[in-house]
Structure formats: structure tokens, C-alpha cells
From TrEMBL:
InterPro entries: AAA+_ATPase (IPR003593), ABC_transporter-like_ATP-bd (IPR003439), ABC_transporter-like_CS (IPR017871), ABC_transporter_ATP-binding (IPR050763), Cro/C1-type_HTH (IPR001387), Lambda_DNA-bd_dom_sf (IPR010982), P-loop_NTPase (IPR027417). It comes from Liquorilactobacillus uvarum DSM 19971. PANTHER family: ABC TRANSPORTER ATP-BINDING PROTEIN. Residues 9-63 form the HTH cro/C1-type domain. This is XRE-family DNA-binding domain-containing protein. SMART domains: AAA, HTH_XRE. Keywords: ATP-binding, DNA-binding, Nucleotide-binding, Transport. GO terms for molecular function: ATP binding; ATP hydrolysis activity; DNA binding.
Length: 298
């Protein structure tokens, strides 16, 4: 149990904005005990586990095993249509589950960003229905293609502001994230002065500050150098919940996704598990070239 429990404890404590001391006080234990539980050096007894689940507001199962009906349906999309001057989405039907790692593929202009924008509520569909089983405001994190960064803040100010808005403010956590995303040297640089790749890294950092049940990433690695791209995919592997990534970066996605969707002619033309693609001895890129036949390759 130790690894999952330790991870859950750290995550849930942060989500509640509690320090180790705060939690220790609530449970009538020492801060060192909390630290040992979080480091996997000791485990609490059953009475403390029950107290913990009450204080953290989660089921015992979820606290110990990390199982929160994770594979439940989180979004059901039916008959979704959207046109601008031309039809773009022409009847999207799609079920999204809590543990999915989805690569959303398709040619330029296929409508991937449009579908993402409808899911996170930036634009409305013309018709069709979206059944949300998550709270789009609290449980959805987005990193969009457009630069939504505020150029007249410094990197650290931007992270602090977003952490405050997301209610995950902690000085140590912010420093840690800036270090992890290799933006230490740029900490006091104005965002407007960052390079394109550094801006992408900052945008990703901001999207990952708070936990989410659904993380939507629209071409996250565009403009990143190779080491940032490596870092990005590895980091993504440790993010909890469902992740939907729009990407043309085929180099690494075989390792990090469980499901691939191909958007073509306004519909989900293919919906397949990565295991199935691999069982045919294909990479996702080979599969994509086969099924997106004749279309412009990205
Ligand atoms: N706000 C808008 N007004 C008019 N047309 C739009 C708008 N947004 C998107 N479109 C059009 O809808 C189509 C789909 O665009 P979308 O950005 O969803 O494609 P995409 O699959 O994300 O493409 P890419 O891979 O190039 O990012 C395109 O033809 C685009 O020009």
C-alpha cells in the first residue's frame, strides 16, 4: 500500500492546502509521523487512516488504493456539430473515461482544437449534447495553443498568481515547480521576454499546478527543444486523471498514451487502444498514416 498511500497523502494534503503541521495537529500526531507516512517510512494504524480519510474528505479506498472510480465515464459527447463558414464537426460521438490517456490526432484544420474548445467551454456547439460528470470549472485544466500568458508579470509572479487562483499557494511548492520546469534562471524575467519554448514550459507548469480530473493539452510541445519535450512527456506520465493531448509529435507518444482518436471529415473516424495498434506491430505514426490516408501529414 505504501507507495500509493504516500502519493495520495501528499496530493490530498496539498489539495486541501494543509501543511504537514496542520495535518499533524488535526490528527493529534507529530509532524514527523506525517513526514514518515509521506516518505513511505511508516504507515498509520487503521484509526488514523479513518481520521485521515475524514480530514481529507475522501473514501478510505481512495486514500489507500488511489481508486476513485477512476475508469468511470467523465464526459459523454453525442451528436456534436459545429460549423464556421464550413462544417467542421459533423456529429461527434465520444465517451471519455477517468483514466484515459488520449492522443487526439487529425490533419491541420480537422477540428481538433474546435472540439477541445467546446469541451472546455470556450465555444458552443451548434447542436448535440455534452454530458459532464466532472465539474468543468474545478476539475478541468487546460493548456491551450494560444498564448494566454500575462507578459507584464515576471515568471514567479505569474506562478504565484495562478497558484493563488487555483488555491494551491505554497512558497515551497511554487519554488519546486519552477525548479522542475527549469525556469529558475528566468524566475524574475518578464514573461514577455521569455523564448517561445520557455513560454510553453511556463504555460504547462501553470496548467499542472492544481490536480485535475481532465487535463486538455493543445499541441503542448510546439516550440520546445528536445530536452524540454523529453521532460514534458515524462512529466505527463505522472499526472493523475484523464489526459487528452492534441499533438502532431509522433516521436514519443507511443509510450504515453492508452487510446488514440482520429478526427477526420468532421467525425471520430477511429477510436482505438494503443495496445491494439502495437499488437499489429505498428507505431502510432504508421497507424496514423494508414488511416488518415491521402490527408496532409503534419
Ligand atoms: N473562430 C473561428 N472562426 C472561423 N473559423 C474557424 C474558427 N476556429 C476554427 N475555424 C476553422 O475550423 C476549422 C478547424 O479548425 P481547428 O483549429 O479546430 O483545427 P485543428 O484540427 O485544431 O487544426 P491544427 O492541427 O492546424 O491546429 C479550420 O478550417 C479553421 O479555419
Amino acid at each position: 500500500m505504501t507507495n500509493i498511500f504516500s502519493h495520495q497523502l501528499i496530493t490530498l494534503r496539498r489539495r486541501k492546502n494543509l501543511s504537514q503541521n496542520d495535518l499533524a495537529r488535526k490528527l493529534y500526531v507529530s509532524r514527523q509521523s506525517i513526514s514518515k507516512w509521506e516518505n513511505g517510512e511508516a504507515e498509520p494504524g487503521i484509526d488514523k487512516l479513518i481520521n485521515l480519510s475524514e480530514v481529507l474528505g475522501v473514501d478510505l479506498d481512495f486514500l489507500i488504493l488511489g481508486k476513485e472510480k477512476l475508469n468511470d465515464l467523465i464526459i459523454k459527447i453525442s451528436g456534436l456539430k459545429k460549423a464556421f463558414s464550413q462544417p467542421v464537426l459533423q456529429g461527434i460521438n465520444l465517451n471519455i473515461y477517468g483514466k484515459d490517456r488520449i492522443a487526439l490526432l487529425g490533419s491541420n484544420g480537422a477540428g481538433k482544437s474546435t472540439l477541445a474548445k467546446i469541451i472546455y467551454g470556450e465555444i458552443e456547439a451548434d447542436s448535440g449534447h455534452i454530458e459532464n460528470h466532472i465539474n468543468i470549472r474545478n476539475d478541468l485544466n487546460v493548456m491551450t495553443q494560444n498564448d494566454v500568458l500575462m507578459g507584464d508579470l515576471t515568471v514567479i509572479e505569474h506562478v504565484q498568481l495562478t497558484a493563488l487562483i487555483d488555491k494551491v499557494y505554497s512558497r515551497t511548492f511554487i519554488e519546486q515547480m519552477i525548479r522542475k520546469f527549469r525556469l529558475e534562471k528566468q524566475k524574475n524575467t518578464y514573461v514577455s521576454k521569455l523564448s517561445g519554448g520557455q513560454k510553453r514550459r511556463l504555460a504547462l507548469l501553470l496548467a499542472l499546478l492544481r490536480e485535475s480530473k481532465l487535463l486538455l493539452l493543445d499541441e503542448p510541445t510546439v516550440g520546445m527543444d528536445l530536452s524540454s519535450i523529453d521532460f514534458f512527456w515524462r512529466y505527463l506520465d505522472h499526472v493523475g486523471g484523464c489526459v487528452i493531448t492534441i499533438t502532431h509529435d509522433f516521436n514519443q507518444i507511443d509510450k504515453y498514451f492508452s487510446r488514440v482518436l482520429l478526427l477526420k471529415d468532421g467525425k471520430i473516424a477511429q477510436d482505438i487502444s494503443v495496445d491494439k495498434i502495437h499488437s499489429h506491430n505498428q507505431t502510432i505514426e504508421q497507424w496514423y498514416r494508414q488511416y488518415n490516408d491521402g490527408e496532409e501529414q503534419a
